[in-house]
Amino acid sequence: MNSSFEILISKLSARHQKSLKWFMDNKGVKIKGWPEPLSKDELLLTMAKGIYKPKDLDHALSIRLSLNGPYDDQLTELEDGKFTLKYYQENLTVHKRDLEYTNIAMNKCINDVVPVGVFIQRKAKPNPIYEVMGPAIIKKWEKGFYALNGFDNSGEF
Fold first, then answer.
1. The pLDDT of residue 1
2. Which end of the chain is more exposed for a tag (fewer CB within 10 A), N or C?
């Protein structure tokens, strides 16, 4: 039987599915330094922004929480690999936020029920460590925050 995660990603392109499956397969893994791309053209996240939207996808692929970032993101780890996350939108300026392509891609994830991968920085530079929290569903946007629910270890949320 297919998990909720597998059902939700089944409608996506093969490239998008491959990237999101990586987040499920590597859930809980801690990575020293910066995560390697899946291939030359398949990044999992970007240093430039917290929200990563590949140019060939309509949806955001991943989000990254940084230590000492400017936003008040709130991660709560639950049982069996589940988590909740309040993740602040990109851009603090209210009149600019709706123009950010990353926020537009996050909203498309909400509307189309497409998961995003979640990374969290556990240790700061010079030797950063990132943890793969796994894929999550963005349930809603409210007062500047995206509310996410992470899948459990078996792909249910």
1. 55
2. N
Percent of the chain with pLDDT over 70: 98
Residue written as tokens 């639950």?
A: 78
CA-to-CA distance for 118 and 29, rounded, in angstroms?
12
Token output for 1: 């039987």
- What was the pLDDT predicted at 47? 87
For residue 23, give the nearest of 68, 60, 69 by alpha carbon.
Answer: 60
User: HSE of 112 in the Cβ direction (CA atoms, 13 Å)?
Assistant: 16
- Residue 107's domain comprises 4-150
State CA 44 to chain mean position distance. 9
**Tokens found for residue 131:** 């943890």
- Report how far Cα 85 is from the mean position of its chain's Cα atoms: 10
**Strands 51-52, 83-88: parallel, antiparallel or unpaired by DSSP?**
unpaired
- 8 Å CB contact between 106 and 89: yes
Q: Indicate whether 157 belongs to any domain.
A: no
pTM score: 0.93
Q: With respect to residue 155, please indicate whether it lies within any of the assigned structural domains.
A: no
